[in-house]
Write a structure and sequence with these properties.
With about 290 residues, the protein is of the alpha/beta class. Helix content is about 45%, strand content about 10%. The chain has 2 domains: about 40-230, 3-Layer(aba) Sandwich (Rossmann fold), CATH 3.40.50; about 235-285.
């Protein structure tokens, strides 16, 4: 008959069980001084990481998107003042300034605030961390600042269920969305889902209509939809001219036009991103630095 294990025998086993439980437990949210910066990144380790200097474009240089710019700035300003405002989805063509507009609007509204008022904070959450969005909003709920939570290039593919976390966060569950938090997202897709994902639901679901509706309704959680479309040649050249003036580049206008058009033709694209890439190349060839 086997001897009955003693407490000393059981101790190593209990220690291994305790260590395994600690590893499987969700990490605790680290506290951070939200006054440390005006912008943060929500890291995978579930903490706010201050961003000392935000990579942003001045709002005056975002040309060709005037209506979207004015609408988003107005919505952001209402939110900063404590007035009702909508979550916003910026969708459409690549390189047309969707994420740049979010960061520029944040800086613009903070620049308008009255002395003594608290600055609005910007926090970026990466697409792969979207399941932690409810946790982030809960963390920000009791902070005295107003927060823009921003997710760049948001979309969902087949078998990806993390969109449910986004729906929960935008609806706010039983507590409601925190009054001091607004969510902005950019995407190339209007409904955030791949077309084949929607078509697959139609072909395989027991009730195709309801299955598709559940996923497409995600974008309905955004009260503000702003569409970005490919720019015309004139708009593209206007972007080039604005950058040249802002950075005080010395170049012949005819040469500038010819080289800018050749640059866009070789890349098969006209956009704000293409315009800035051309300006970087031009400044380098001219031996001039870009201001700021």
């Amino acid at each position: 008959m086997a001897a009955k294990p003693t407490p000393a025998d059981l101790l190593p086993l209990l220690e291994r069980i305790a260590a395994a439980l600690e590893r499987s437990a969700p990490p605790s949210v680290a506290k951070v001084d939200t006054r440390a910066a005006d912008a943060f990144v929500w890291g995978p380790e579930r903490r706010l990481i201050p961003v000392p200097k935000v990579n942003r474009v001045e709002i005056g240089l975002l040309t060709g998107i005037d209506r979207a710019r004015d609408t988003l700035v107005e919505n952001t300003e209402r939110f900063a003042k404590g007035l009702p405002a909508n979550n916003a989805l910026l969708w459409g063509a690549r390189g047309m300034g969707k994420s740049s507009l979010v960061k520029a609007a944040h800086a613009e509204i903070n620049g308008r605030r009255a002395d003594g008022s608290l600055p609005m904070k910007l926090v970026e959450i990466h697409r792969e961390d979207i399941e932690a969005l409810p946790e982030l909003m809960s963390l920000l709920r009791d902070d005295p600042h107003r927060w823009l939570v921003f997710c760049d290039d948001l979309s969902f593919d087949a078998d990806d269920t993390s969109y449910k976390s986004l729906k929960t966060a935008l609806d706010g569950g039983i507590e409601g969305r925190p009054e001091n938090v607004l969510f902005y997202a950019t995407s190339n897709r209007r409904h955030l889902l791949a077309r084949e994902m929607v078509e697959n639901e139609r072909s395989t679901a027991i009730n195709p209509g309801e299955a598709v509706e559940e996923k497409v309704s995600l974008s309905d959680r955004f009260g503000l939809w702003l569409g970005f479309h490919k720019c015309s040649q004139d708009e593209y050249l206007a972007m080039i001219s604005a950058y040249v003036e802002r950075h005080r580049l010395v170049v012949d206008p005819e040469r500038l036009r010819a080289e800018a058009l050749e640059w866009s033709t070789t890349r098969g694209s006209r956009s704000g991103r293409t315009a800035f890439q051309f300006i970087q190349d031009l400044a380098g060839r001219l031996g001039q630095r870009l201001d700021g």
